[in-house]
Amino acid sequence: MDNNTLSIPMADNYKTIIIDAIRNANKKDIMEFRMERKVETFNSVHFLKWDFINTNIIRTLPSDQFQCVKVKRGPLWELVLIYDKETKYLYAAMQEKRFRQLSERLYKETVHYIDALSSKNNDLEADVDLNPAKQIYLFDTENVDWNEQVEYELKLMLHLLEGEVTRFVLVTFSTDKGEIASVNAIMPNAELEIAYEENWNEFITADFSTAFELQGTTSEHEEEIFVGLREGVVSHQHDDLVQLRNDEMEKEG
């Protein structure tokens, strides 16, 4: 397919809603939670931010236009997929650094959910200007077992959607000291190469509601924790929040 014809058909006000959901989770929601709870330590800040991001997205996007689906990734993690009922585009959010880690894997031992979702764009070619030179890719994407696992993961994640998915878009973001530094919407292909990208920085709204920053939650620390997110949290069915497992807390402490 000609990548020049690609676009992301989302109205600007919806882009702003998604970005505000991420921004509020990373600063205002975390600050309010910490002031109300008055916890002595704050080891689970990264995972708490994702609970707030998911909650904000579900509660602020209009349900007549979007279907937000909570998807469990084993017993340890839960993500939210955003399905546009009109355009049939599927969206998810992820930190930019985490996407780079996944896209730069030389060996793929297991199917990550981004691998499965990006297979919806398997007809797209990588944009050479958006993809840095990679080392030799040591995996055969035509592997039968791999493709069967991709299809299995897709069925698990998408069976509740109200329609088919025509494209998958990943909203990637980076933060710095609780503030959103950048937001991009990308279409990764099956090899996690970027086929199309839109910069959404113009939709980042200024937040003057908080006059101070949380101590000890720099972007460097957040990214360090993120590497182990699927193995470091426990999801509670009747609680909007997640907490670190006891052994993970001992490891971090």
TrEMBL record:
Protein name listed in UniProt: DUF5986 family protein
